[in-house]
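S.,

As promised, the pyridoxal-5'-phosphate run. Input:
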Amino acid sequence: MSPEKTAITTNLMPVSPFARLAGLLEGVAPGGPVVDLTVGEPHHPMPDFLMQGLAEAQELFGKYPPIRGSVEFRAAVSDWLSRRYPYLDGLEETKLGIIPLSGTREGLFYVAFSARARRPDIEKPVILMPNPFYHTYAAAAGACGAEPVFLAAGPESGFLPDLDAIDDEMLARSVAFFLSSPANPQGAVADEGYLEKTVQLARTHDFILISDECYSEIYTDQPPPGALETASKTSKTLANVISMQSFSKRSNLPGLRAGFCCGDPEFIEDFASFRNVVAPQTSLVVQHACVRVLADESHVEVTRDLYREKFEAADTILAGRFGYKRPEGGFFLWLDVSEFGGSEAAVKTLWKECGVKLLPGRYIARDEADGTNPGEKYVRVAMVEDLATTEDALTRIAGTLK
Ligand SMILES: Cc1ncc(COP(=O)(O)O)c(C=O)c1O
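Predicted complex:
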């Protein structure tokens, strides 16, 4: 069966956007040297001390890792959180749950089951998520028996879901809300006011706010605020709020498969017990290396500079085109290609005429009730290559779509 034939999205099990893209471009030859800017896989150097960190702990390959992580890993996360979000400094361990993840993706999937399980009183549970969305959110909702509810996150609402537009019936049935900030793909950042309101909704309706902060360290000027700090400022507790963090984007380590989940200690304890029987444990060798990676900010600053250079190039090459605006955070461009036939047509044209491969926006969004798709007008560009490759690709995009 060709990938196109498998490209059916159902409410329960969405198909990978990359499989759909393979179907779209099947049999179409690239019209130039290939540059693939589809996957959010940073091609910047990894921290040079990583291998040493792995090597010094290699005897730990002989041990099954405890699901709650090593003491040193949890301490390193706690220290990092205190530095990054000063308001969390001094929070006792009993008030802040922390567990390692084998990449944030698996955590985002399994967490939905625990969020659903804590509200057995809700007969027809729903999980709220932005539209466009990271596919794991929808898969997690479907798998745990909750209906995914897609909240439009287009330009009218600043590319984040409009919290005032969620109806009360949905809120009453919600067991979780996946929020992505900085948002993949639009790069919008939820400010403190927005986070405060979302935390408030989670507490009023007793659901779990799952704040996906994988891109929190990739920004131009101001570090984006975090949901935990906002929750703690508002009420001195982390009740109903967890944050998901990844080493893939901050430290250019998508192949390490490492991240962590932190926040509401009671919920994290439930999540840890569930994980203890189902989830992949994170290798203690990896956790040991992560301790070193978290303690170092210099490689993260270098990474931010590399992205800054590329966004400066984009500011020039794409000025006045495709509704371009430098994203507040993260490393994607979300370009409006409606003049060029919309997302699939533009991706096909670019591939056929200049060899640049992008992701159609409609593949990472769901049709709304009125039949419109908030990704239809857009293509997503992952700014993950080096400066020269990125400049070349952006120049080809601007030269081809005109
Ligand atoms: C919004 C979002 N959340 C989570 C992830 C998963 O990251 P990880 O590599 O830690 O599994 C990604 C990866 O691209 C992402 O874009």
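The radius of gyration is 21 Å. The longest helix spans residues 298-317.

- D.
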